[in-house]
């Protein structure tokens, strides 16, 4: 029971700090480090949920999880089947398999939906917009103030005529730098796992919070590519409207927070905070990774008459 509880805590503890992390203003000054921490928390939660079932399933084989897991795998490999496991252990295995399949299925579904939307957007832009090759921009004949990129291979940076007419040259330049940063950084791929997580566990506040927080952080990372923050802040206020489905817009998420951040960008970010956050991300991720990797590093197993005998690897 103790190993199972420890594995459950590995999954739940990072999730418990999600709401506080989403509200933390230090993330504004260190968006890349904060993004890495969110990625570590989400991955740790998923691996922890899967590992908790595995720990419970192999507990009858040995109280030490690496020993029990290695015994379980070798039993399967040597044709001993699921010997020694009861119905509770079967339920635990089903839990782990179910969580894994559920996450993979929603990730694939989110990828297919995103790809379909982007293809549709590229087609609409190619049909309706005028391409300005000198600026590599597509201009939509719309009075709405729009600026967004359609990410992916052969992506598009799109401006509306309304945005061109209402923004100054400096503001337009800042907006274009922002959108091209999205395209170069493939921020759509960074956001995709969090979109899938929010769909897979829509009832879980952590999943929704993570998706929203990561979207804002990606916008802040793109904001940092604007040479002068003041014109971009003015453009954000003027264009506070979401991008079409499948696109990443300049005013998509966290507009108020981003404007405040841009106006206060003269405050120097403290380098050691990023180091501390990256270290915390590695620490958060190390727990479930260590649990999964340990069986393949420290045990040497061999078949016996009925079961398998596993002993600590002597290194010889």
Automatic annotation (TrEMBL):
Cofactor: Zn(2+)
Free-text cofactor note: Binds 1 zinc ion per subunit.
Segments crossing the lipid bilayer: 34-59, 94-115, 270-298
Keywords: Hydrolase, Membrane, Metal-binding, Metalloprotease, Protease, Transmembrane, Transmembrane helix, Zinc
Gene Ontology biological-process annotations: proteolysis
Domain Peptidase M48: 121-198
InterPro entries referenced in this protein's UniProt entry, alphabetically: Beta-lactam_resp_regulator (IPR052173), Peptidase_M48 (IPR001915)
Signal is among the record's keywords: no
Highest taxon in the source lineage: Bacteria
Molecular-function annotations in GO: metal ion binding; metalloendopeptidase activity
Record has Transferase as a keyword: no
Sequence similarity: Belongs to the peptidase M48 family.
Name by which UniProt lists this protein: M56 family metallopeptidase
Organism: Herbidospora galbida
């Amino acid at each position: 029971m103790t190993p199972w509880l420890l594995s459950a805590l590995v999954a739940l503890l990072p999730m418990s700090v999600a709401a506080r992390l989403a509200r933390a203003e230090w993330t504004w000054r260190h968006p890349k480090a904060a993004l890495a921490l969110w990625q570590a928390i989400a991955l740790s939660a998923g691996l922890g949920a899967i590992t908790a079932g595995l720990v419970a399933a192999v507990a009858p084989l040995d109280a030490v999880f690496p020993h029990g897991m290695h015994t379980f795998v070798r039993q399967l490999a040597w044709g001993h089947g699921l010997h020694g496991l009861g119905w509770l252990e079967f339920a635990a295995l089903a839990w782990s398999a179910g969580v894994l399949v559920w996450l993979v299925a929603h990730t694939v579904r989110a990828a297919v939906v995103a790809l379909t939307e982007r293809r549709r957007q590229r087609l609409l832009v190619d049909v309706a917009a005028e391409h300005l090759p000198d600026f590599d921009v597509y201009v939509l004949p719309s009075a709405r103030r729009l600026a967004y990129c359609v990410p992916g291979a052969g992506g598009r940076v799109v401006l509306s005529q309304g945005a061109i007419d209402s923004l100054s040259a400096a503001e337009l330049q800042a907006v274009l730098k922002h959108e091209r940063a999205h395209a170069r950084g493939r921020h759509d791929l960074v956001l995709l796992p969090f979109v899938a997580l929010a769909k897979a566990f829509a009832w879980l506040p952590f999943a929704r919070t993570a998706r929203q927080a990561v979207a804002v952080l990606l916008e802040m990372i793109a904001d940092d590519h604007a040479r002068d923050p003041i014109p971009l802040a003015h453009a954000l206020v003027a264009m506070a409207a979401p991008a079409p489905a499948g696109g990443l817009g300049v005013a998509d998420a966290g507009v108020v927070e981003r404007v405040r951040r841009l106006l206060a960008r003269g405050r120097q970010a403290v380098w050691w905070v990023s180091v501390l956050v990256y270290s915390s991300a590695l620490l958060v991720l190390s727990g479930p990774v260590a649990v999964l990797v340990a069986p393949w590093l420290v045990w040497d197993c061999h078949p016996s008459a009925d079961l398998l005998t596993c002993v600590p690897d002597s290194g010889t």
